[in-house]
Amino acid sequence: MASVTPVVARRPRAYVAVRGPQAIEYLDRLLSNDVPESGSVDALLLTPKARVIAPLLVWRRGPDDVLLLTEPELGEVVRAHLVRNRFAARCDIELEQHVSAIFFAPDVEGGIENRDYAEPAFEVLDADAEVTLGDDELERRRIAAATPRFGRELDDRVLPAEAGLDERAISFTKGCYPGQEPIARQHYRGKVNRRLRVLDVEGDPPDAETPVTYEGKDVGRVTSAVPGLALAYLRAEVPDDALLRVGSSTARVH
After folding, report:
1. Which sequence spans correspond to the domains of the chain?
2. What SS3 class is residue 116?
3. What is the distance between the alpha carbons of residues 8 and 193, in angstroms, rounded to a whole number?
4. In the predicted structure, residue 175 carries a pLDDT above the cut 90
5. DSSP 128-188
């Protein structure tokens, strides 16, 4: 059977390498998820009050070698935060330069599993591959998967659980890390007042921060949008079948 050529898109990134005999131990003290034995996991770098400093894709490259992939504007933020908190940990922390391509395929040799698009995808560094999927379509796939992006869905107003990140980027069994107490308190004792939802929206894409209303009441705000789809934070009590207003357009939960 002939092989199928995968769809390929560019993914802007920044890269922070952490290497050394105490690299894994050090990162496990700071990240919201355990560094994996192999492969990749999603994790967060958090403040003590559980606000997101940076979302991370954590790739275990070797026994004492981890590459952190984050948003392009956060590379120096992550590096500086890790250096500032390193103290006596024996590890080197430095920026690296790469180019990421997303391959939409069931498996890619040497690829880093990427869970941002609700379909099998692998991130490959410095690949010699033709890009066949544009930025707008990649953004559509992110929005359809309800994957939050820093600076849009993630800022100092948002808790990880509100963005759905407690399900993919947080371990509730690992040791202590900054932000663990409020994360655990919310998870075991409380509930969130709003959640990130995908909306089907009629008309032109709404701007970020456009209010969402239900039965005349303000129940949320848009964070990202493409034609026909939007991400928005909605009050938890909004029914799944609610007819919503987004600016002058109508919308429903996807």
Report:
1. 7-127
2. coil
3. 37
4. no
5. -----S-HHHHHHHHHHTT---BTTTBSTT--GGGGTGGGTS--SSS---TTHHHHHHHHH
For the stretch 84-118, pLDDT in tens is 999 889 999 999 999 999 999 999 999 999 999 98
Name the 3-class secondary structure at 74: helix
The pLDDT-based confidence of 1 (bands split at 50, 70, 90) is: very low
Residues 6 or more apart whose Cβ sits within 8 Å of residue 237: none
| Cβ atoms within 10 Å of 209's Cβ, excluding its own | 8
The per-residue pLDDT for 45 is 98
Q: What is the CATH number of domain 7-127?
A: 3.30.70.1400
The whole-model pTM stands at 0.94
**Rounded CA separation 215/219 (Å):** 9
